[in-house]
Amino acid sequence: MSSKTRTAWLFLAPMLVTLLIVAAWPLGRTIWFSFTDANLNDMGAARFVGLENYFGEYGLFANPNHTEGFWLSDWGISILNTLQFSLVSVLLETMFGLGVALLLNQEFKGRALVRAAVLVPWAIPTIVSAKMWGWMLHDQFGVINAILQSWGLIDAKVAWTADPQYALWTVVVVDVWKTTPFMALLILAALQTLPKDCYEAAHVDGVHPLRVFWSVTLPLIRPALMVAVIFRLLDALRVFDLIYVLTSNNNSTMSMSGFVRREMVDNGYMGYGSAASTALFLIIGLATVVYMRLGRMKLSEDA
């Protein structure tokens, strides 16, 4: 081993040790607990049960009541809720973020002030923004209902965060409002690095702006766009705080992280909750691999 390699490992050692302590060790313990019947009230009495928490009679991927399908179980519903939330919110945030970034990339008076103002929703802590929206969406005294009624768009007040018909999509709207600036910021950073000569040549040749966008801008920012989407997708798949604050333990909106929290904290089933947490980890990992494959981006590819 060369001296440069030894020096590199020496500098990496503190980071690797820290990562082992704060990530690998807890993950390993969670995986181990998923193979036991550990209970939060008496962790010392935990017994090894193998795959019982996954495929047993009452496991995650079993049919708990033998009368309903897997996707109607609480765990199945939480998977569907999380996938719906993630796909719709990330798609909308990417589209709106791209539009906002293209606007902010233009030269106009007060651009710096507008850029700062756009970031405000993203800068607000999630808990704070969720409580703020919860008050505005309240079915009795919320300002949203008052405005919609005054405009004649609704006849009666709507329980946006309690009615299963609207709850999940209400959460999606709030998340799009909060996280679109994040996507816009990442895409804007990519737009700022594009060479100006391509656009000058297109302008001289009289190329239509839409064609310039599809043929020049989009291909050039594609790597940055893919990175932004994967960051946001990973964050969306493990969503908990926004949904929990807005809708609490409502089954119609419960995410996979919410299911894990309910089983571990509310019910005290540490082993069962750890199995759900491990499954969540594997689902996120699978989603990442599938996305990278679909985007034809290799994990080892240089930026």
From TrEMBL:
Q: Which SUPFAM superfamilies match?
A: MalF N-terminal region-like, MetI-like
**InterPro entries given in the database record:** MetI-like, MetI-like_sf
The regions listed as transmembrane in this protein's record are 7-27, 83-104, 116-136, 166-191, 212-234, 269-291
Can you tell which superkingdom this protein's organism belongs to? Bacteria
Keywords attached to this Swiss-Prot or TrEMBL record, sorted alphabetically, are: Cell membrane, Membrane, Transmembrane, Transmembrane helix, Transport
Q: Does the keyword Transport apply?
A: yes
Look up keyword Cell division and say if it applies: no
| Membrane-related topology note | Multi-pass membrane protein
Q: Which Gene3D superfamilies match?
A: MetI-like
Q: Report the subcellular localization.
A: Cell membrane
Q: Which residues form a coiled coil?
A: none
Can you supply a Gene Ontology BP term from the record?
A: transmembrane transport
Q: Which GO terms describe its cellular component?
A: plasma membrane
Residue ranges of every copy of the ABC transmembrane type-1 domain listed in the record: 79-293
PANTHER family, from UniProt? BLR7065 PROTEIN (PTHR43005), INTEGRAL MEMBRANE SUGAR TRANSPORT PROTEIN (PTHR43005:SF2)
Q: Family assignment?
A: Belongs to the binding-protein-dependent transport system permease family.
Q: What protein does this entry describe?
A: Sugar ABC transporter permease
